[in-house]
Amino acid sequence: MRSLRLLVALSLALAFSACVQRPEADASGREIFVQVCARCHGTDLSGGVGPALGPGSNAASQPDEFLTSAISEGRGTMPSFAQTLTPQQIDRVVVYLRQSQAGDS
Q: What is the model's pLDDT at position 3?
């Protein structure tokens, strides 16, 4: 049973990563989030397949380095986006998340 769950999780992660297109180099953090992250985390950051990232979420209490690492390297069933996003784009996504968590976006 555990092997089946792992296989399903891996299949979903690969399917989601295959559907992701590279955003424009100068895309804003919000634009990158909508294009790359929203299908799992929700356009309003409320979660779905992936956890919520908005105000009051567990992500809001994590340091920036945690979010940067999770986006870059992946976490659990979340795939790595190191091949899809540049370090600068990842930084812009983290800034967008922080602004959204603070109610500034």
A: 76
What are the residue ranges spanned by the domains of the chain?
Answer: 2-101
Single out the residue of 97, 71, 65 nearest to residue 83, CA to CA: 71
The per-residue pLDDT for range 27-40, each reduced to its tens digit, is 999 999 999 999 99
- 70: Cα separation from own chain's centroid: 8
- Among 39, 38, 24, smallest CA distance to 89 is for 24
d(CA 44, CA 63): 21
Place of tokens 């990563």: 17
Helix (H, G, I), strand (E, B) or coil at 75: strand
Six-digit token pair at 97?
């998340």
Cα–Cα distance for residue pair 40/75, rounded to 1 Å: 13
Q: Which CATH architecture has domain 2-101?
A: Orthogonal Bundle (1.10)
Phi and psi at residue 78, to the nearest 5°: -75, 130
